[in-house]
Amino acid sequence: MKKLSKTLLSLFFLPIIGLSQPYPGGISTNIELWLKADLDAMNEAVAATDGQSVNTWKDQTSARTNDATDTNFSTPPTYRVNASDNINYNPVVDFDGVNDNLDFRDDYIFSSGTDGHNGMNWFAVVEPDNAASTKSSQFIIDFGLNATEGYGFSYGYNNFNLHTPTGFSGKTNSATHAYNSQPTIARFTINFGSTQTFTLNGAASPSITDNIPSLASLTASNTYEGVTHNIYGGPFTIGRQCKNDNLTNNGGRLLDGSIAEIVGYSQQLSAVQIQKIESYLAVKYGITLDNTGGGTAGDYIDSDGTLLWDASTGSSYHHDVIGIGRDDSSVLLQKQSHSKDDQHRLFSSTLQVTNSSNSASFTDKEFVMIGHNNDLVYATTSSKLERPSGIYSKLEREWKITNTGFTPSWNIAIALATDAITPGVDPADLRILIDDDGDFSSGASVYLSGESGFVINYDEPYVTVTFAANNTVVPANSTKYFTIGSVRMETPLPVLFYNFQPTILDNNQVAVSWSTSWEQKNKFFTVERSHDSKHWQVLYQLDTHLDCSDIPNLEIPSDTVIRKY
Fold first, then answer.
1. Distance between CA atoms of 305 and 284, rounded to whole angstroms?
2. Comparing C-alpha atoms, which of 116, 128, 406 is closest to residue 260?
3. How far apart are CA 320 and CA 138, in angstroms?
4. 113 with 192: CB under 8 angstroms?
5. Cα separation of 155 and 111, whole Å?
6. Dihedral of the alpha carbons of 493, 495, 496, 501, in degrees to the nearest 10
């Protein structure tokens, strides 16, 4: 019996012992710090709830002795987990730009310049709140003396800033930018003996590049460290300039905004390692990676290096790229996501206020990614040119879908523009269009609600399409193109007619006149004729007018059927 008990005990613990600790993008070597708002943002000794102070923010690595605390400050930052403040349904730690800060006291973060500690890479997901033009130097992290004996970077109203020590004279730089209040992945890279850079959203070309050939380490010998903040420096700090001197310059060198995640490494990371980390952050926080550099720029990969989204294939669809999926090596389980303007949503199960409250469950390394072609979310004459047979109109906006091993059911919700939901939308008129190459004029498949596991629902302004589990139309490990069409001429309609009147004349012709109560984004009217309501011939195109009653009547044959749009 004892022998059997020991055997059962060892079998029970074997899977637990074999589990590896997760890291961002699965990258563990020389990680120094990992803070994320969805885990261990603490109010005193318990997890903070919405609106509570964050007195302690716990590091998720084994590298730190201390956690970030408010010990040195009069007020701590605030935990936010609500529909207004979340970043892609995930919570944030909110800094007020006046007093709210955290630091690590005597637990300093260095890179020795030896044993692979050959630089630094810092990543932060940040969303600025303050649009004041004077607030140009809002520090995300800072350590030591700015700008000669320390390092740090900031993301202000109209400037990016970074600094490192170089021969104790300091190497600082800044670049101007247009104010952007959207969530952003900011990366501060320090390569000893080479360069320091500041990069946004994985761009191939950094916003700032400085040569720092004389910088060989970041240790106590070239950083003005300290347990408390004074005019010369202090501890590793989050949300403000470390030193007290000149703290009120530039409208206050404190962050007015939210931080969702901070990750730091004491080494030079490879391009693939950076891509894995930024892909993890981009999927989790609904941020579109920059693809302007071409090649692999803008690609999303998982912690194994598997391609989740190819930015070069159908590059015109690389807008508002979002995804759902699971990657256990990163502790990523994103069950719902939305574009920054909330015009489209992607989710499994039932949409919730927060990602964590969604009940969906996936298998490791299952992902669905979507992006759109940046066209309008309603039908126009140009969209009518690219439609399958039997479809009267379709949305101009089209989506690319990449399914990587994803087998549960999932949903896409699309917010129709105001002019696309007047006079009304009947889900029975809508059709799902799926294509292999994005050209819906030929080869597209058409499905109505209930076919092939698809379901269409409408809750103004969102049309929601459910893709059934193990969908055979968009199967695992495929890329397809998707949009919505209608078999009804008024759906969607960008013009509301006040009056439309055809009149039969004595000379066996028809006079057509009309007026509109409003028009939005309507370029012109087209009058067509048909003998069977299936095949149409364009007779006349008329520039758009708010009231067409003052235009001479159009005279067309009496056997013409009038169709308006």
1. 17
2. 128
3. 26
4. yes
5. 23
6. -100
Residue 551 pLDDT exceeds 90 = no
| CA–CA distance, 61 with 318 (Å, rounded to integer) | 34
Q: Return the sign of the alpha-carbon dihedral for residues 292, 417, 513, 557.
A: positive
Three-class SS state of 294: coil
Tell me the two tokens of residue 201: 């959203």
Burial class (CB within 10 angstroms; exposed 0-12, middle 13-18, buried 19+) of 230:
middle
Specify the pTM: 0.85
Residues 395, 467: Cα–Cα separation, whole Å = 19
Model pLDDT for residues 431-480, shown as the tens digit of each residue? 999 999 999 988 999 999 999 999 999 999 999 999 999 999 999 999 99
Please measure the distance between the N-terminal and C-terminal CA atoms of the chain and give it in whole angstroms. 83
Residue type, 327: D
DSSP one-letter code for 8? H
Phi, psi of 222 (to 5 degrees): -130, 20
Question: What is the average per-residue pLDDT within 131-135?
Answer: 84
Yes or no: say if 134 and 255 are a contact pair by the CB < 8 Å rule.
no
Residue 231's identity, in one-letter code, is I
Tokens of 470: 């193990």
Nearest to 95 by CA among 126, 63, 72, 71: 126
- What distance in Å separates the CA atoms of residue 496 and residue 517, rounded to the nearest whole number? 6
Dihedral (Cα; 24, 26, 31, 32), 10-degree rounding: 30
The burial of 133, by beta-carbon neighbours within 10 Å (0-12 exposed, 13-18 middle, 19 or more buried), is given as exposed
